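Slide 14.
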Amino acid sequence: MDERTGEGMDVTLAGLRVLREVAERGSFTAAAGALGFSQSAVSRQVAAVERAAGARLFDRRRGGVRPTAAGRALLRHAVVALDAVDAAGRELRGTAAGEGEVRLGFFSSAGPVLVARALATLRQDRPRVRAVTREAGTPALVRALRSGRLDLALLSSRPPHRSPDTDAPALRAEPLLEVRLRVAVAVHGRFAGRTTVTAEEIAGEPWIAGPSGADGALFGVWPGLPGRPRAHHSARDWLTKLHLVAAGAGVTTVPEALHPALPPGVRLVPVEGVAEEVRRVTVVRLPGPVAEPVAAVVAALRQVAAEVAG
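Slide 15: predicted structure.
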């Protein structure tokens, strides 16, 4: 027999889970893959929830889907309902107060120092709090927050600092740290012994970048360089990028906070003659009461951010 969410709407928990997965993944196909369903099964579940709600829940667009206003409203309640079911399961398993799992998302350069040190602090100070993490870009992290798949997300922004989305209710954001960008160069390369470089000097260098963002900008190429800088190498993870720099394969842009994680053979230098590039690191969550384990993770992130800034 199906479990129902209430007398007013005849919606199954399975339907709510599909709703959440589609909202997070941004497509029926991706949601089907994550759930182990066929795409037609996902479509049927969504259609059933839409009939029960009496409203269209997703706008179909090229490249994916996005929740409508009605879809976002129902998603907020779906997240509460599914979290309540999960909480009941934890209670039945005898989870103690102050113990629990916190789901933390983060942008890539936050991982090697900020996230790693915060998890070490958490294990030492609050060993009964378990953090699970995932790395992703800002749009994916925000969707995961909205769909209840994440409790917290670390986001990076450049001025002017705006909310990462315009959906309601507004996300709660707490600035943790402001970091300056630097250029990572090889110790024994062209810029050996230099304490600064100029925009003109680095514009023609071979760049090591990550995949392009939604605006077409290459992650890792210094913003606003003259001419047409070329990315000779593309890599997602920072360890690969920095070891390519050490090998003399090129240069890349790095947040100064990554300095403790640099491999041998790499130096960070500022770019002179241009406006300084600063990025803000923010921890973001949905509005509402903060569970004790979530507060413990935020406290650990604050502590490490203060250490990095100092």
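Speaker note: Residues 1-6 have pLDDT under 50 and may be disordered.
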